């Protein structure tokens, strides 16, 4: 190499040219000359430190070695990795620490730490992709990176500017930045970042039109929000409201009953659940309603109180919430349609029974032939007296009994809302799916769990979203696939709690039947191909010492019935640190606008049910194609870094 030789330089599949290369005496600088005819002076000098990463790691080691003894124990190493912004699973890191401790001293010297760091962060799967596009196997020049972004990540517009931005943002080597190049470490940092995530970062922030009528949105909704446990003996607490509102929930529920000393209470009636004061719930609502989102909160009232205590409820709502409580139509005019989330920013809407409509205001107390929470399954003739003070707090969400879709089309008002049990909702979808979708294009519907779910379990909300139901109320306190789907749907659009429904569910001139989606206008099915490549630092599910998981990955499609599907990879024996699958799973998506994709990792067990390891759920429309990382979440929806999956995704049109 000191003498020099002619080699073919390949920058991409189409750019291949001869160059004369010679290694300089410092063993770090490569000199080359173009082989173009008549060009004897075209030369360029590239200085690229071949061992820069090892020196960079050693520099960090020296910074953290406070007593200058050249050694670090595991606790010090763990703190250093945090300083270096390296995520780690402590169990896996300790195992690698022991392997790197060649001297068996219980500490790492600088060269041992370099070995430990490289073992912890080595990614052969990503390295193969890197080398496929690298001209020299050491770095991606700007053209190499552009080729990768175009061919694999399917970036089309402004590729050069985007590639330069990635180099500036993720490349740790200043020398590489000067060359407009990206080393493997920079490439790995990019793929591990939000821009390398499967979730399109452009859809994480608010991106949808928020000026449509309220009934055109799916609304994140909670059932029996006050309960932290089951429906029989569970603990009632204002903490339930705080947790739900912090998760972006925009519709919360209160069951109100007469309490002691004239103070209304909240609890699950006729059960042994504990009780809290209504005024405490309202106070929490005032304090937390707009912490996670500025868009309106709907307070769904299940009213079992006497007229006297209803007046107290109205007093608490008015005095505690003040201007946040919407008590009259916007602009003081009789509206002709529901306002938008944008119009209602910072406002709390009461959902409940109302005397008359928006067109007329009645005085005093009237008899109402329906009792409590009005649902289409109730058949009661008992009368409840409703106070004008509480009635006046209801504006755009008047609870009414549902008779039929034909009756609603003729007689219902835009500000009326009906509540359905899960079973009746499914029946309506089966028997009149397209009519239900049209009904929900005109006004709001609320769906709530069956009363038989005393364990606070949930139904599958996807079935209800398929019919355009906006307020699909779930028990937020119960983790599981149902809440994963809810969190997945509302993880887009700034976590604001409102998701704009597809056009074909908002337009009353269109007919969409979730049971027969092929019949809709604009039907364009897609093919989804997911190659599950590898996993990284998957958490242990068994605390027993020495236990190692046998991971498999399941990909689930949740959507209209025709889209419901699931496929699994094979399981990998005893490897939770860096399992490799390279298994490809194929799906057909008929209604991509409604589909959710759930990635689940489980610990395979041939004798019993597999153990849950982690999951990630996102809307199909938010998927980024190409090589992507999926950052896993725990059963309760919290992050479990650095656990992830590495996948390759392709989406193609079938028609």
Automatic annotation (TrEMBL):
Catalytically driven reaction(s): a 1,2-diacyl-sn-glycero-3-phospho-(1D-myo-inositol-4,5-bisphosphate) + H2O = 1D-myo-inositol 1,4,5-trisphosphate + a 1,2-diacyl-sn-glycerol + H(+)
InterPro entries: C2_dom, C2_domain_sf, EF-hand-dom_pair, EF_Hand_1_Ca_BS, EF_hand_dom, PI-PLC_fam, PLC-like_Pdiesterase_TIM-brl, PLC_EF-hand-like
Residue span, EF-hand domain: 61-87, 88-123
GO molecular function: calcium ion binding; phosphatidylinositol-4,5-bisphosphate phospholipase C activity
Broad class of enzyme this protein falls into: hydrolase
Cofactor names: Ca(2+)
Keyword terms: Calcium, Cytoplasm, Endoplasmic reticulum, Hydrolase, Lipid degradation, Lipid metabolism, Membrane, Metal-binding, Nucleus, Repeat, Transducer
Subcellular location: Cytoplasm; Endoplasmic reticulum; Membrane; Nucleus
Domain C2 positions: 508-634
GO BP term (any one): lipid catabolic process
Entry-linked PROSITE patterns: C2, EF_HAND_1, EF_HAND_2, PIPLC_X_DOMAIN, PIPLC_Y_DOMAIN
CDD domains reported for this sequence: C2_PLC_like
Pfam families, per the entry: C2, EF-hand_like, PI-PLC-X, PI-PLC-Y
Cellular component terms (Gene Ontology): endoplasmic reticulum; nucleus; plasma membrane
EC number: 3.1.4.11
Domain PI-PLC Y-box intervals: 390-506
SUPFAM superfamilies: C2 domain (Calcium/lipid-binding domain, CaLB), EF-hand, PH domain-like, PLC-like phosphodiesterases
Lipid bilayer topology: Peripheral membrane protein
PANTHER family in UniProt: 1-PHOSPHATIDYLINOSITOL 4,5-BISPHOSPHATE PHOSPHODIESTERASE DELTA-4 (PTHR10336:SF31), PHOSPHOINOSITIDE-SPECIFIC PHOSPHOLIPASE C FAMILY PROTEIN (PTHR10336)
Name the record gives this protein: Phosphoinositide phospholipase C
Native organism: Cyprinus carpio
